[in-house]
Every structure is written in C-alpha cells, then in structure tokens.
C-alpha cells in the first residue's frame, strides 16, 4: 500500500522552525556594567554623535541591554538639558539598569578616564610645551581645531537654521558676542525669550526639528524592553526628588564652603567652583556653545590662561576620549598652575586640584538633572522634543560657534596679533592651507576627527622642523 508523501515545508515554515524567537539576554550584574562603562570611558572618541552611536551599537544592537524606543526616549530627554548629552545618556541608562549607584557609576566612568588623560597631557604641555617636537605638533593641531569648529558651525547650522527668522537670530547672536561683547548667558536668555514669543506668534517658524534619528529596526527582546515596567526604586516620588536635590545642594555647598574657608571667596579654586557651576547651566548646544563663555571668564575676567592656551586646550580635548566639555579640566589645571595656588614648588599639585574642581562643579548638575528628572520622564513615557525657546537658543548657538571659529582663525593665522594690532606679525599661510585641507576632509570626505588631527599634527611637525 502506497502512501502519498508529505508536501515539503514552505520556506516560510522552515524559517519559522529554524529561527525561534530570540530570548532576552541574561540580567547584567553591576560588575558587568562597571566593566562596560569603564571601557567606554577610554574609547569614547568622536564627540557626542560618535559616543551616542557607540552606545546604540553596543547596548541596543549587540548586548540588548535596552530597547531602541527606551534608548531614544532617554536620549530625547538628555538633548533638551544643558550639559553633555552623551554623558547624561550614559547616566540615564545606568540609572535605569541599576538605580542611583548604576547611574552615578556610568556617569563618573564616562568622564574619569578623560580627566586622568587630560591632566597628564596638560602637565606635559605646560612643562615641556617649548620643546621643538611638542611645539611643532601643536602648530599643526591648531588649524585642525579651527576647521573642526567651522565644521561644527556648518553641521549644526544646516540642521537648525530652517528659515529666515532662525538665521536672523544666529546673525544677531554673532554680532552681539563678536562686536558688542555681550555675555554668553545673556545671549542664551535673549534667544530663549525670542523663541518663546516667536513660538506664540509664528509657531510654524519655531517648530521643533528632529533629533538624532533612529532606524526602525528590531534587534530582539532587550533586558529593558518597550513594555518592561519600572522597578519601585525608579518610580517618581516627591520624597526621592527632594532627597536628590538636597544631597546635590549639600555636596555643592560642602565643597564650595570648604574652598571658601580654605582660600577665601576671591581664592582661585573658590572662584572656579562658582564660575563652572554657572557654566554648567548654560551649556545648551554642547561644548562648542559654552566655550565662548569659558573663554570670556577664563581668559578675560580671571586671567587663568591666555587665548592661545585656550586653543591648545581645545586641541588636547579633541584628542582625548570623553565629552569635549572636559576642556574645563584643562582650564582649571592651567589656571591653578598659573596662579601658583600652592606656591611655586607645588605646581603639579595645584594643577590637579584645579582640574578636579573644574570637573566636579561642571558635571554635578548633570547628575542631578538625570536623577531628579528621569523618574518623571519615565512615568510619562512621552517623546520629548525641543520647545520653541530651545529652538531659538539652538539658532543663537550657531552664531556663537561662528564667533568662536573667527576667534580661533585669528589666533592661528596671526599668532602675534593683539587687540591693539590684530594683524600684526607674519601671516601663517601654511596654517591656512592646513585649515582648508582639514575642513575639506571633514566635510567632503567624512574623515573622522582623530585622523584629521593626527595628519595635521604630523604635517605641522614636519613643517616646523624644516622651517
């Protein structure tokens, strides 16, 4: 007796049999998280876009610690805060996974390697910066930094300036800071007010733009998935909110109070604590936007460093991992070293103290923004976008960054110039060629920041030795 053979399974049936639904990864221990955040702190080159991309690739796609939706939800919140958005995103994800300890651990490890590396590089810069090899490398890096700032202005402006009103705000911000020496916080407040009024009068002109974007890809179930409920410790409560605020204010008051008692209100470290606290609240638009404020305070108001040193500090910041706002550690190190706060025989100790003070007061608010605000954001789970005031601020930031690029270009192309004689001394034609080449590499050929800096450093070293 013959039987009819069974029909072969269809490709769809075979696919479903051979590819069972993936299961969520195993829970992540605090030790596993520690090792990942520490590694990220050492390899987080490429500015906020590169750092966010690294976290997305590793945490969403490969390890599946967090879903795409939850990742972008956290990113949207970080983007509307003052401060380094990539570091705040790391703090947010660390908090989601392991509570307050996890958030603090992720945020600190994102910054700590960069601080240690910058302290070492700044010491070499101050102690051995006059050596021909070091001077030649810095000679080549400075044009690269100028090109990077110009490219940042173009990149942000191409996304932010979507109509004539926003172009006008950017132009007004440039004139205000370049020609009228208006303080950066005043520009931020003015742009925010214009954005608020403009959003009410002509809302279409101040509609919010997109964020970093996302891919509609499914990477399988995650430990913190779209529908994973929050643990009790992460739910919003006024008791926790007030507790975090009290702890943060107490830490700030304790450290600033000790500096006041030890050095007086006019002491260098005390003034650094107060100044960098204010800087932490005006960092809308990222590090490039706050650099003019840091320059105004560090160079013009307090005399902690020179304009040329500020450019060198940004160059060192570009070559180290971590958020670019870590240039504040350079400013703190140089300022404490220059002022010899512990005497001429303890310059290194003074520099380390200045770098730590600047970093502490710059980043303390970032932790508080996440630990205080994240539970409320998770409770709503609504996508956050830029408001009209922040749209106005973002437009103003473009003008401020253009001013920064002009300032850097002037110091690079006319290094002997001064306010009394801005074009004194010889014109550095080779620096102009390096600046143009670096910008073309970044803009046209999409070369990364680190290769551009390395190539310019080698070119500058070769040119200096030949000259």
Walk me through this protein's architecture.
This protein is mainly alpha-helical and 467 residues long. It is built from 17 helices and no strands. The N and C termini lie far apart (98 Å). Mean pLDDT is 84; it is low at 1-8, 14-19, 209-216 and 382-386.
Labels describing this entry:
globular, 467 residues
Largest sheet: none
The gyration radius over C-alpha positions equals 25 Å
Helix content: over 70%
Question: Separation of termini?
Answer: 98 Å
Question: What's the helix and strand layout?
Answer:
Blueprint: H1 11-18, H2 30-43, H3 47-62, H4 68-79, H5 85-128, H6 132-160, H7 164-178, H8 184-201, H9 238-263, H10 268-280, H11 287-301, H12 307-318, H13 327-339, H14 347-380, H15 388-413, H16 429-443, H17 449-466
